[in-house]
Amino acid sequence: MSREKKTGKDPVKRTLKIIFNVIIALFTVFALFVTVIALSANNSKDGVPSVFGKTLQTIESPSMEPALMTGDLMIGSKLSDEDKLSLKVGDVVTFRGWDITGDGQPDLITHRIVEVVTAENGAVSYWTKGDNNPVRDDSPVAREDVLVKYNGTRFAGLGKFLGFLRTPNGFLFVIVIPLAAFFIYELVMFIIRVKRVKNEGKRTVSAAEEEAIKQRAIEEYLKSQNNNGGGDK
Q1: pLDDT tens digit string along 34-78?
Q2: What is the pLDDT of residues 2-16, one digit of tens each?
Q3: What residues make up the domain containing 102?
Q4: Which three-class secondary structure state does DSSP give residue 115?
Q5: Beta carbons within 10 angstroms of residue 47's beta carbon
Q6: Is 176 within the bounds of a domain?
Q7: Domain count, the chain
Q8: Is residue 129 part of a domain?
Q9: Cβ atoms 213, 73 nearer than 8 A
Q10: How far apart are CA 85 and CA 144, in angstroms?
Q11: CATH code of the domain covering residue 126
Q12: Quick one: average pLDDT of 218-229?
């Protein structure tokens, strides 16, 4: 009976184990992805993280709404010098702009090109404007300051979450602690499996069998005592 019950549970346990492993695998891939993005941002000279030429940026202001909403994760393409030659009116680009945060460094701005200007010496610059702004930006952007072109893909609200993951606390609580808990769990399960394998060759003795063994040992002892007594006579 116990064997039948155990066999009946095995498919359920196997299914749950497969689901658990799939979730852990996806989480591990996600953790690696976030780590790569964080390292890419830290190692990037222009502050724009990119993976295989694709960039991920969080929209932090409403200037481009409704095309890009605050908190969206924007996917773009990192521009080479050759790519910048093909920029045109209507393209949404990220460029080194004015100092918004007040730290003395130019911040990254994502706006739409509304005019392309070519100077007499051949230098190209772009007038830009936020879709949600009433007027265009105060000054044109030099071609070399344009870094990214928006490719039309965005994920609503995911930018805020990714931004939180890039903070020390976010990375600790969402990535490090869950992974540590998973590895501890796997270590415990490995130890349990090792003990189980060691004990597979040992037959478990029930209470009734143990009592019968004790009774038989007592009977054999009494019998041997009687035989020894008969020999002395």
Answers
A1: 666 666 655 666 667 777 788 888 898 999 999 999 999 899 999
A2: 444 444 457 877 888
A3: 51-155
A4: strand
A5: 14
A6: no
A7: 1
A8: yes
A9: no
A10: 10
A11: 2.10.109.10
A12: 68
